[in-house]
Write a structure and sequence with these properties.
Helicase, Ruva Protein, domain 3, Rossmann fold, transcription regulation, sequence-specific DNA binding, transcription, 20 helices, 5-stranded parallel sheet, nucleotide-binding, alpha/beta, 16 strands, 4 domains, Sigma 54-interacting transcriptional regulator, 5-stranded antiparallel sheet, 42% helix, Beta-Lactamase
Length: 442
């Protein structure tokens, strides 16, 4: 052990540290035996590789092929997994014997790895999928997303209006659908509309319907989404883009549970739960006079924030393999492994388009590439573009104060307010970035 590490460990609570280390090894095939060859720990990864369950092994004498004996330091051995013949694979076993302070054998640690690179990639993708939590189409291993799942579960049991906040491509509609599917309204309609996709007049007609003769071309009565979603859930995506004149009508529906169609003269009663979504801050929209404050409070009874993909990087490889397996099922091309250079580029990317963009990248790779390996050259052009120009903006070019302030402001906008990321794009330290922000009042 090197001296800095040894000195640091002397001041750490070793048992909690060791237990947390084991928890991080669930995807790897790690196991521990004591001096009597009894299994002390058998990780989830060891279960998946060997086919042997921890509950059946822990506290019992291990099989001979998994034994770790005195003198087996750095021992390597090829063994056969105990799965059925159809799924059995060859494993490489690496072992390290352990000794107490008197030099007496105390047990050992073993690591199981697939013997071939292809098996390693397939095992990793399977392990990632099995250790993830799939929640009504939402796939994640992130603790932040587990908290989101719990809020969805709790909110679905009520009739409260929900506002989902998240960036484009982060899965806002999947959240809305999960709330509907978990609610008492699950057998009634779930309808969705993007409030930014239509003009004010078309959106009015689409939401609230119109009567015959209401305007040129209205040759018959039209039932709007509120009528068609009666008893169910209506998902209003990009609700911050709703025109002010329609915000008043939406507020009335929420408060009074009735509305008047375009060109109509009588109100229609309706029972609809609303789940709205936006990538903007409604509070900021209210401050800027673009959104009604009373409607904001009506919509955000239960706010749900979806973290962007760049803030839950443990999900990137999981989602990549999930979408690869989906496309593999189409039998056009089967990807069994990812080239290290390609995986590094995928993991380092900031994913401004979130999960939707990630899915598109996998689809692009399937379309332009061939063979069983996903290679760096098969990634979209943005992964191969040089990112050095932007990082040199402040350091290498003689910018005026106005230009430098504008660069800092733009970097903050692109990083969605993340100071560390904005500083990196401009080639500054975090301290320098803060100092310049203070100077320019950004």
């Amino acid at each position: 052990m090197n001296k800095p590490l040894s000195a640091w460990l002397q001041h750490q609570p070793l048992q909690p540290l060791f237990l947390k280390l084991l928890a991080l090894c669930d995807v790897a095939g790690l196991y521990i035996v004591d001096q009597d060859q009894q299994i002390v720990h058998w990780s989830q990864g060891a279960e998946q590789l060997s086919g042997l369950r921890a509950d059946d092994l822990t506290g019992k004498t291990c099989l001979p092929e998994y034994a770790i004996t005195d003198g087996s330091d750095h021992q390597k051995q090829l063994i056969k997994s105990s799965k059925s013949d159809q799924y059995s694979i060859e494993l490489q076993k690496l072992t390290q014997a352990l000794y107490d302070h008197e030099g007496i054998f105390a047990g050992g640690i073993g690591l199981l790895l697939p013997a071939s690179e292809q098996q390693a990639n397939m095992t990793l993708s399977k392990s990632l999928s099995e250790t993830a939590q799939s929640f009504h189409g939402l796939l994640s291993r992130s603790p932040a997303m587990q908290a989101v799942f719990q809020i969805i579960q709790n909110a679905a049991e009520t009739e409260a209006t929900v506002l989902v906040r998240g960036e484009s491509g982060s899965g806002k509609e999947l959240v809305a659908k999960a709330i509907h599917d978990l609610s008492a309204r699950r057998n009634a309609p779930f309808l969705a509309i993007n409030c930014a996709a239509l003009s004010s007049s078309l959106l009015d007609s689409e939401l609230f319907g119109h009567v015959r003769g209401a305007f040129t071309g209205a040759v018959k009565d039209h039932r709007g989404l509120f009528q068609r979603a009666h008893g169910g859930t209506l998902f209003l995506d990009e609700v911050a883009e709703l025109p002010l004149e329609l915000q008043a009508k939406l507020l009335r529906v929420i408060q009074e549970r009735n509305f008047i169609p375009v060109g109509g003269d009588r109100s229609i009663d309706v029972d609809v739960r609303i789940v709205a979504a936006t990538h903007r801050s409604l509070r900021e929209e209210v401050k800027n006079g673009r959104f009604r404050e009373d409607l904001m409070y009506r919509l955000r009874v239960v706010p749900i924030f979806i973290p962007p993909l760049r803030e839950r990087r443990e999900d990137i490889s999981l989602l990549i393999w999930h979408f690869i397996q989906q496309h593999n099922a189409a039998n056009f091309r089967k990807i069994e492994k990812i080239d290290p250079q390609a995986m590094r580029a995928l993991l380092d990317y900031v994913w401004p388009g979130n999960i939707r963009e990630l899915h598109n990248v996998v689809e692009y790779a399937f379309a332009v590439g061939r063979g069983t390996t996903l290679r760096w050259s098969e990634l979209p052009p943005e992964f191969r573009e040089s990112r050095t120009v932007e990082s040199q903006t402040v350091q290498n070019l003689p910018l005026s104060a106005e230009e430098e302030a504008a660069s800092i402001r733009q970097a903050l906008e692109r990083s969605h307010g993340k100071v560390t990321q904005a500083a990196l794009t401009l080639g500054m330290s975090r301290a320098t970035f803060w100092r310049k922000r203070k100077i320019y009042g950004v």
